[in-house]
Amino acid sequence: MASTILVTGATGTIGTELVKALANRGVTVRAGVHSIIKGDRLKHLNPDVQLVEIDYHKPETLAVALTGAERVFLLPPPTSDQVELARLFIDAAQKAGVRQLVQLSAAGAGRDAQIEIDRRHHEIEQLVAASGLTYATLRPEGFMQNFVEQHCATIRDEGKFYMPLAEAQVAYIDVRDIAAAAATLLTSDPATHAGRAYHLTGPAALTGQQVAEALSQGTGREVTYVPVSDEDARTAMQELPAERVEELLALYADYRAGHAATVTDEVASLAGHAPHTIQQFANDYKALFQPED
Ligand SMILES: NC(=O)c1ccc[n+]([C@@H]2O[C@H](COP(=O)([O-])OP(=O)(O)OC[C@H]3O[C@@H](n4cnc5c(N)ncnc54)[C@H](OP(=O)(O)O)[C@@H]3O)[C@@H](O)[C@H]2O)c1
């Protein structure tokens, strides 16, 4: 029988693309979804995708989801208690006897993990390394899709996006490339990648101005990057939980310090193709940035 691959965070930005990438490879995919209703659209991607409910706060759901899964993609929920939740998942994976665990971490966890989000990823990496499971780690840089998740409304309504990045360069990665890299790890011999960590980036380190130029070209309307102060960014993010706002401001400061500007060739070596450029991203997602009628 073909081995079953459990994808956690399956309805999220990376998870959706990973389910698609694995289903295209013809492997048995079990999508771990927080709610079956939300997960139902994954069935439309491919009717053979299995759905299983996972709530990290309910360890019994982890045990059920992991039963019979040989390989797993661990995307710890993006919450402040994610280290504890990841610990529960790792324990359950050990008990279930999984053959390989691929974890989603963050680029900063492989540097000095100076900021809170990176420190949590670093701690989870250490738990995984100490677990005795065969594992591999993906450490992506900032996502191109953040421009959809976080800035789509102002780009649509005003043709502008506001970030406290000054002239900082970031080697933004398209999440489709993270998914392609993860799909390779989850379908090749686990021993080949055992214990290895991959720093995944896009093909270039970009300023906000360069992102704006790509979005302008992709959408056919002028999009402008507006550098703002931390204070203005804090005010603009007031609908987010205070803790999340401070995490994002720390991340932006890290970017301004030049820590996210390194470009690697790890997507090409894992996925077997060049990473998407910001222009390809802007062209493919242009409909989401258009003003509503
Ligand atoms: N954004 C970046 O630039 C960047 C860069 C590097 C690394 N990262 C890392 O990437 C991760 C986020 O990935 P993403 O953007 O794909 O995430 P996402 O889109 O926010 O998706 C998170 C997923 O987790 C699920 N989830 C939330 N709480 C859960 C719970 N208690 N039990 C089970 N599932 C739960 C969500 O389901 P529901 O929606 O149904 O709750 C969703 O499917 C974070 O760890 C972040 O640190 C991000």
Automatic annotation (TrEMBL):
It comes from the Bacteria. InterPro entries: Ergot_Alk_Oxidoreductase, NAD(P)-bd_dom_sf, NmrA-like. Gene3D superfamilies: NAD(P)-binding Rossmann-like Domain, UDP-galactose 4-epimerase, domain 1. This is SDR family oxidoreductase. Residues 2-254 form the NmrA-like domain. Pfam families: NmrA (PF05368).
